[in-house]
Description:
Layout: H1 3-18, H2 22-35, H3 42-55, H4 59-71, H5 80-91, H6 95-105, E1 122-127, E2 134-142, E3 145-148, E4 163-176, E5 179-191, E6 197-204, H7 207-218, E7 223-226, H8 235-238, E8 241-244, E9 252-259, H9 265-274, E10 280-286
Parallel strand pairs: 1-5, 4-8
Antiparallel strand pairs: 1-2, 2-3, 3-4, 4-5, 6-9, 6-10, 7-9
Helix pairs in contact: 1-2, 2-3, 3-4, 4-5, 5-6
Amino acid sequence: MTREEDRELLTAAYEAWESEDWPQAGELLERLARRHPDHPRAGVWWYDAALAYKFLRNWAKAYELGREAAARADRDAQDPAFWNLGIAATIMEDWATARDAWRGFGVGLPDGEGEIVEDLGPGLVRLNPTGNGEVVWARRLCPTRARVLNVPTPESGRRFGEIVVHDGAPNGRREVDGRSYPVFDELLLWRESPLPTSVVHVVAADADDVRALVALFEERDYGAEPWSSIEMICTCCSEDSLSHDGDHTVAGDQRVSLAAPVDEIPGLLARWRAAAPQRRSWTDLVTG
């Protein structure tokens, strides 16, 4: 291939990139990088090729080409080549490569082998970002995986306790009780939850009665989500920076989503009502 042909290949690759023709862009950039692996721009070509396959959700190719990109990136400099490799290696369950990628980016992780399961604190994930885009709280297990802590609406297609893989680039922020949290878009479901989502109608005289219901389920590592905590906003606003109160709990007549074994729910609701029968009642349980 002549220099002129190389220039034409490079031009075609980035024309495909600009038009978001990811299959074409990935193929052409990989071809160029493999032809000139020692070129000063080869690291960029490997990275962009891997990114194109990430956009395609072709994780095997994103992993393969991401390793090439990371091999040419500076460690401890927050180079995104390491972050994208960390995501792809996690999905491919190559834990040694994932750990090395996170460390290459500059994330401190303890030594270990096998699946990375840490407690990196709470975070926000947008489930089903190409659909209704529901933002939920989650417990971060590693830089790219999190366990859902809310009970999502049925429309999200997700359940309480599921583990999802999320992207590394924030897409919006939420300020809660004076602290700002980035919102990360879900990439895929990592591990399903065995707990179905049910819905019940409750009447509570006081907000503390609703909190007691939530606490009763949380004690068993189940979930209860009052619909009063759900705020409907447009996609444009969701991807912006918003402020929220930490506690949306209100009293009165409302629905509550429940994540628990179906056969245990009536007994738990009966216990909740029996503690204050003058103030609490429930009806219309629809099990998942």
